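Instructor's aside before we start: the two examples that follow are unrelated to each other. I chose them only because their records fit on one page, so don't look for a connection. First example below.
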Amino acid sequence: MTNHVIIGNGVAGIKAAETIRRNDSDCKINVIGDETYPFYYRPQLPKLVSGKIEEERLWGKKSEFYEKNNINLHLGKKVTGITPDKIVLTDGVINYSSLLIATGGSIKSRKYPGSELNGEVVVLKTIDDAKNIKEKVKKAKRAVVVGEDFLTLALIEALQSSRLEVTYLLPGDRLWPEILDKDASYILELKLKQKGIKILHNTDIKEIVIKNRTVQGVISTGETLIECQILGVVDKLEPNIDFLSESGIKTDNGVLVNNKMLTNID
């Protein structure tokens, strides 16, 4: 019996599992996820932070989906390596006859003086991130966010919708420069400003101001002190491929594949 293993419980992994099951009712399907939650809609996380929806509204697939489709779900599992016939986890191994890598990416951390205080600088990528921010906004009035891409915009939306005064530090001259030209960025910036968000171009953080182990503000590269109780720092996504370092699979800022999405390993 064919045993398909999918590393990744996001939209790509789940769609693949659905398609495999639709075309083969007898095979084994194992889905591995590093979070402890079933598949959920990440674009809804800002609404979870602001209280516009409850956690139940996030679920894209509930436990019944996995049971109905006879999918073995392994949650909260970290893959540490792979060989041509098995997945190595921190607490065991899973054999496979075919493997799909759909691990997505993680937000790259940016370091500033003061950012070594773990837990005080926030990002918004997971449900646990959203829950952490939701608690912090209860005691906050102002927030500063630095970054450029869509994850930055999601964090700004979450904080602004929570009725915080948000200052957005844009390291370059436009939003999401890999995707948007200056005109598109300008239109999006107008939307943000209409919501009361202050945008500072070509500005980054020089230093994080910490007092009593909590964020009190930032000093910008323009030598301006900006008070805040929440600081969000969003860098670019990095592909989650560390576990492939000794696998023999070729990578280059991602997994290298041919025109059939196959790696160099059969």
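Example two begins here.
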Amino acid sequence: MNILLISTEAEPFAKTGGLGDVIGSLPRELNKQGADARVMLPLYQGIRQQYQSQMEFMGEFHLMLSWRTQYCGIFRLESDGVVFYFLDNEQYFGRDAYYGYYDDGERFAYYSKAALEALPFLDFSPDILHCSEWQTAMVPVYLKTLFREDQRLSRLRMVFTIHNIEYQGKFDGSILQDLLGLAEGDRGILEYDGAINYMKGAIVTCDRLTTVSSSYAEEITDPFYGRGLENIIKENRYKLTGILNG
């Protein structure tokens, strides 16, 4: 089984908390069990400064993010037996921090779409894409909308993991076409409680939904813990599984 973990953090390259721990260690364990698990990350400024001399350049392309034309470079590096791919765009990732910018919605919509468009350039053909948290939540949304007619991607299956449902990626409804480049008919996938909600879109469009423990899988169906998404979680409970970190 070929698995590509698309993330915004993974040790030893980028980490702010548990997400970086999981994505840094999970592929190694999957590989021990006979899978071929690899990781995709943004080429953040700090990673570039420390590791770029060790990387192999794999190719480049330009993608459309609605009306914007954006560059994407692809680099490859093997670390501790795991292959990592890095997507390069200095406008979005050449910054001091990973998150917390006014254009985070645009940055990670770009990353999600670029991750899919980069797949034909890789020396690897995944069966499963695994994404985590709101920053990569647009990957399954794009896979089921803009890329649904792409035969090269039709065999892919999508796992989405919620580590912390409090951060959902909520943005003004006007970004649907102007930023995300989606049709008005796709608004229902993402819109919830008067906003575009990236995590809601991933919950609806992924093939399997996981959380970081079986207890958390139960908790997020409760209004207190679900942070407004509990009803969407309940509607998609048939594909929800709690898998304990570690």
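The radius of gyration is 17 Å.
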